[in-house]
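Thread: "does anyone have the structure for this chain?"

Original post by V.I.:
We have the sequence but no experimental structure in hand. Need at least a predicted one for the grant figures.
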Amino acid sequence: MKIRKLHLLILFSVLITTVNMANAQTKFGIKAGVNFTNVIMKDENGNKTNTQSMPGILLGLTVDIPVAGDFYIQPAAQYSRKGYKQETGGFYGSATNFKVNASYIEVPINLLYKPHLGTGNLLLGAGPYIGYGTGGNWKSENDAAIGDMIVGKKGDVIFKNNAMDGGDINSYLYGKPLDYGLNFLAGYEFFNKLSVQLGAQVGLANLQPHTDGVTREGKLKNSGFGISLGYKF
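Reply from O.Q.:
Generated one for you, tokens below.
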């Protein structure tokens, strides 16, 4: 019985030590950068719509949690500005030089590999992300219209699961609010503090909203890449 208690005490001590070491090595940080995002958009007949990328800001908080050796789990909470440009056919076919800015709150969770290299660490990572669209804005070079009704040259971006829920007459429905997909990153961390990262996202969620419960054909997925600077405290 005494030996068993001793083993439990040793195990408990090891666990406490491991937790304390993990807490000591856990690093909190901030990051900021620029995204270049676009969408993969196909109509009900499978025809791809020609769109171009848009720049947007990225701001976030990160946590590096040690797992084993040079491997870390890095969850983050971030604000990401996404969107796209469309030279013709925007805003349901009536707008030219149509530009859409869509705001997202995202939670990426990456498995991070940080081997020591030179005076710092190489950064390689990948993992899933989940995001939620919160709003945004659009603008057009000409007055956009719905049928015979002129809605103007700018307005709000909205997110809805049901296309029939609608909004103000000048609101543009981007798609469903819930987004998810995969992250990839590569970069370098200087002196365990300052880092430079290149990142990419591949959206897996089809954001095409349904119409009163009827699933619509077509496809709308986010995609993009960017560059950011990070700092660990």
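V.I.: this helps a lot. The two ends are 46 Å apart (CA to CA).
O.Q.: and The chain is about 10% helix and 65% strand.
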